[in-house]
């Protein structure tokens, strides 16, 4: 409990504060004596008056039976209940208020409603409110704001309706609270009705009301309405500008947000730390380091640079713009490193994994995030749900299952595993690392599940070739009332595609459109086309493409070309190739697909045409890279890489495995592809590289990892058909599970089968 500082008194009298003029008990008013206690005199004759607040029960016990008490006496006691969150003390005071008869005073009863709400007892507050003989607008407002505080915005709206029906007029503060309830409900319809009420009574133009309206429309994803509300504020303050700048970022219009920030400066409005953090966030979104540095200068100019939120935003900006050294310098210079700062460093490195220009940089960022998380654990601070969710996402990207399992144990110990954000990230981590059984267990143990949780698990089943489990989970999700979204249906349709369940796919495709009103996007069409291609129904695949609401993209045509090659329909393949070339694709793997098809058909004129287009579009040479993590170290490999000290062992092992695989029926498939040499111009070889990077990474893992350990490899491009087929045989010969994630999907090889449902037959 908070206490006043001790006052050492000896010798001549000292003046105390205005509340306690003299130290004689008889001279102190009853209310003051009830509110404070003192320590006894010291042995030397001087004494210390240590004034400390009495708790509610002690204060009330000092009152004599029948003593008259003014209502103001209860104010500090009720405030103590709010500060300590003590509902039992509030109830004791309530009983005493009734006993002394002061409960009939509106001021006291309103204070009690407020206290019950702030102590987390809305039922007590409502029961008291309903028994009050008199209520003023402050009483109504206390109940409304209390419901919002206790995450019951719907009840707040109902109370507001009753307020209007009672003939009481709301204040600006009341209306601001009601708009907050509309925000919490994401109800733009209710918000517009409240807005209409404000227009009717001419208070829309008041600055605080305009700010609230601006925030409401932003939260409800109506940026245009938010901007209009902002424009109608005649006297805009820094809160007004900050609200609309933040709203622009929240709704994805960074250009508008930065333009408004410039307008604000031209209006000579001095930004505060919240304005500057919002502007820095906009720079992060567009990765505009130059502008970000200018705003950094503004932070220094306005004296906000030392503010922790501003420092965090600046540091995060440098991280996202890959200015690692500068971000680390800011981090190391911080006198106080809050948990928010640690989380910003972890999340920043996690974001850099997705934004990195090459795979080595991405993995370097991921391992840096793991190091920061380790330092956080050693700092004495405890990670929170944001720390855990970010670092689990990093583990997903790195296929770092060992670290992921350690973090899983830490979430259990800390109690954060019960949080739905953390548990969903854990399910995703196990899915991405190829541990579908562990993901299933983590999902089953979740106490609460969101749409993200269900979709993550469903997608995991689909990627691991467990189509029946995916569809059953989808039906379970619908049964408990969770509404699927676009991504959920991508997972369902992908599961149907893997299993060749054409009727079911068409059923769910129509359900998506008709029952849930979800307009199909390219990913949904790609799943359907992939399904027809897998079944060899090429005519149906092309017919389905013609019924699309928009033009097919590079992915759709690539699937069709691969299917035509696999099933020997050359004419349809050439037709699809022509449509693909019209799009001038940017993906180098797409050009490999086209070159392989044209060269195998000996259409040399088309080969020249593709090569010319590659040159015109500045398509670089392919860089085949794979990597494997062993004991916290990452080992990178290129195609035909002989730079490793164990190269001779690796190549010997691969030759042995391929020889045995051939005896089991493996037929090597040779393709034509681009050179892997970084210093060469685009070139076409006559045969595939002897050993692509993933084979070398797998061989390295087989040599250096204990027998029976799962091999996990990441590859920066799509596996070729020959490597896919050969790794299936490797899984039989070594009796190992081999998990490989390429640029397109996850491949889990076990006992000669792949979880992709032999999607490898459609590869390059």
TrEMBL record:
Gene3D superfamilies: Tetratricopeptide repeat domain. One of its GO terms (molecular function) is zinc ion binding. GO terms for biological process: RNA modification. The keyword Transcription regulation does not apply. Signal peptide: none annotated. Keywords: Repeat. InterPro entries: DYW_dom (IPR032867), E_motif (IPR046848), PPR_At4g14850-like_plant (IPR046960), PPR_rpt (IPR002885), TPR-like_helical_dom_sf (IPR011990). Residues 665-759 form the DYW domain. PPR repeats lie at residues 136-170, 237-271, 450-484. This is DYW domain-containing protein. It comes from Ensete ventricosum (Abyssinian banana).
């Amino acid at each position: 409990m908070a206490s006043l500082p001790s006052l050492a008194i000896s010798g001549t009298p000292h003046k105390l504060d205005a509340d306690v003029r003299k130290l004689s008990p008889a001279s102190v008013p009853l209310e003051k004596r009830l509110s404070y206690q003192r320590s006894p005199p010291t042995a030397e004759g001087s004494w210390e008056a240590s004034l400390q607040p009495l708790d509610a029960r002690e204060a009330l016990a000092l009152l004599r039976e029948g003593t008259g008490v003014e209502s103001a006496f209860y104010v500090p006691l009720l405030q103590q209940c709010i500060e300590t969150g003590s509902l039992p003390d509030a109830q004791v005071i309530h009983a005493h208020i009734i006993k002394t008869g002061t409960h009939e005073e509106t001021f006291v009863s309103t204070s009690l409603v407020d206290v019950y709400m702030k102590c987390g007892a809305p039922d007590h507050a409502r029961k008291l409110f309903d028994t009050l003989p008199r209520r003023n607008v402050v009483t109504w407002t206390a109940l409304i704001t209390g419901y919002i505080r206790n995450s019951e915005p719907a009840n707040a709206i109902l109370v507001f309706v009753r307020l209007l029906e009672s003939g009481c007029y709301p204040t600006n503060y009341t209306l601001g609270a009601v708009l907050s309830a509309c925000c919490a409900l994401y109800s733009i319809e209710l918000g517009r009705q409240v807005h209409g009420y404000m227009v009717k009574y001419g208070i829309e133009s008041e600055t605080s009301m305009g700010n609230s309206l601006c925030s409401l429309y932003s939260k409800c994803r109506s940026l245009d309405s938010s901007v209009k509300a902002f424009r109608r504020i005649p006297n805009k303050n820094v809160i007004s500008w900050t609200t609309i700048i933040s709203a622009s970022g929240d709704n994805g219009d960074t250009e508008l947000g930065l333009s408004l920030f410039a307008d604000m400066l031209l209006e000579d409005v001095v930004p505060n730390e919240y304005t500057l953090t919002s502007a820095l966030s906009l720079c992060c979104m567009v990765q505009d380091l130059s502008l970000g540095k200018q705003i950094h200068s503004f932070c220094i100019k306005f004296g906000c640079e030392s503010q922790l939120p501003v420092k965090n935003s600046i540091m995060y900006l440098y991280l996202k713009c890959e200015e690692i050294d500068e971000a680390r310098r800011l981090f190391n210079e911080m006198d106080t490193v809050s948990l928010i700062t640690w989380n910003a460093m972890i999340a920043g490195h996690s974001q850099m994994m997705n934004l990195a220009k090459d795979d080595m940089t991405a993995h370097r960022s991921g391992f840096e995030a793991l190091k920061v998380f380790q330092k956080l654990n050693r700092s004495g601070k405890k990670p929170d749900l944001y720390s855990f969710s970010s670092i689990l996402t990093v583990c997903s990207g790195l296929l770092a299952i060992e670290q992921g399992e350690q973090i899983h144990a830490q979430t259990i110990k800390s109690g954060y595993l019960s949080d739905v954000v953390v548990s969903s990230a854990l399910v995703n981590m196990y899915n991405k690392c190829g541990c579908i059984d562990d993901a299933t267990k983590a999902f089953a143990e979740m106490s609460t599940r969101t749409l993200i949780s269900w979709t993550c698990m469903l997608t995991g089943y689909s990627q691991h070739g467990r189509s029946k489990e995916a569809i059953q989970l989808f039906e379970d999700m619908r049964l408990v009332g969770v509404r699927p979204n676009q991504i959920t249906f991508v997972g369902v349709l992908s599961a149907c595609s893997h299993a060749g369940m054409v009727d079911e796919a068409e059923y769910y495709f129509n359900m998506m459109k008709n029952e849930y009103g979800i307009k199909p996007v390219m990913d949904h069409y790609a799943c359907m086309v992939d399904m027809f291609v897998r079944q060899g129904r090429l005519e149906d695949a092309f017919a389905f493409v013609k019924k699309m609401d928009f033009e097919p993209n590079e992915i759709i045509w690539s699937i069709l070309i691969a299917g035509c090659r696999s099933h020997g329909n050359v004419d349809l393949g050439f037709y699809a190739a022509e449509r693909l070339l019209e799009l001038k694709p940017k993906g180098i793997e797409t050009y490999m697909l086209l070159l392989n098809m044209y060269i195998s058909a000996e259409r040399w004129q088309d080969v020249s045409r593709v090569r010319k287009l590659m040159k015109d579009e500045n398509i670089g040479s392919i860089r085949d890279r794979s990597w494997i993590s062993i004991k916290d170290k990452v080992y990178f490999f290129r195609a035909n890489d002989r730079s490793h000290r164990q190269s001779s062992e690796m190549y010997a092992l691969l030759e042995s495995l391929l020889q045995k695989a051939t005896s089991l029926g493996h037929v090597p498939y040779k393709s034509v592809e681009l050179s892997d040499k970084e210093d060469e111009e685009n070139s076409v070889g006559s045969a595939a590289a002897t050993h692509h990077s993933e084979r070398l990474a797998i061989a390295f893992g087989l040599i250096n990892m204990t027998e029976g350990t799962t091999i996990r490899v990441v590859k920066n491009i799509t596996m070729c058909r020959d490597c896919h087929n050969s790794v299936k045989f490797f899984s039989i010969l070594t009796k190992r599970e081999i998990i490989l994630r390429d640029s397109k999907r996850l491949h889990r090889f076990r006992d000669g089968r792949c979880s992709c449902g032999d999607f490898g037959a459609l590869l390059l």
